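Sample intake sheet
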Amino acid sequence: MSEPQDEAIDILKSVLDAFFIGKVDLKNALRRCSHVCQILSWNGQLTWLQNELSGYPKGVELPWYRRSIEGSTKWLIAGGIETVLESVIEDRHRTEEEPVTHAEMDVWVGIDWILSAAQAGYTEYTGRKSSKYIRLSQKRVETREANVYGKHVFQTLLTNIENLVFNFASNSYSTLRYGDALQDLWQAYRAKVEECLATLGFTGHLDTVRNGLKSKNPQDWRAAMWSCRDILHDLATYLWRDKRETYEYLPGRGKDGKLGVTEKDHVNRLGAYLHQKGAVGKTGAYLRAEMERIYHSISTLNELYNRAHSEVALFDVRTAAIGMYTILGEIVARTDMEPVTEYRTPSTSEAAEQ
């Protein structure tokens, strides 16, 4: 492996670690991923990352998540604070409400501006002026028309960018870390996984994934992507049947700082299952981290494509499938695939990973 690859892997790992502990600095993550693209000469991805950092030049096509950001058009008082307060008090006693006019904007600017707007919103004056009579002070005041965008719309925009950066870092890390071994890994895991899961009634999901990977139809790719996630959901439900809300032998964000294993905690359930079956210590921690990374990547891709109403990319489907088979292959290879109905103290001395 070359020195640039080693450096890139370390950088991407640090980006992913920040995401996992919930302390990601988005601007810093964009810069780190940009550096990875620089040293590996990934020019296509580099352009996207630099545009997110510094803004998109006019004439290029904006990504879907930056287009048609929704706001509303309002008439704002141009006087001092006392005049504004008088207007607000009077408006609260009005019986008629002015109809809301919707506004839209495309966001071309860089990440610094978006981060600021996510804190305070953004107001853009149109140049139109009018006047308004305030009965409390018996005077007319100047008003100016403005398009007002709440901070929540920019927070949503940041979330979309964060998801895309995570997905880039996760997929790039997998490609660089495992390299040519991915193909051998894929074939080995597929054989083990498909033989085992067919006996558990998962044949329909597996067929959808296989057919999607062979198809040229984007609708089949989308179905395959969803099936990758659904298999993980259904397997977690099948393997983990203990009714308690937390797993007390691993730390997490559940009650009393324990690992949450409710019906919605699919990855946690699979991690707890592996732990009960003997995957403890550093090995268990590594497997749980990999499961979280892969599952988050698959879920993020599904959500982004669904929200954008856009066609799924075959490359992303292949990445999701490889990730799914990786998780399932480890579970099949390391456990007896017998469900945990009531968890107990792990039999090994390494069990307590508090």
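Comment: The longest strand covers residues 122-134. The chain has three domains: 3-54, 64-150, 180-334.
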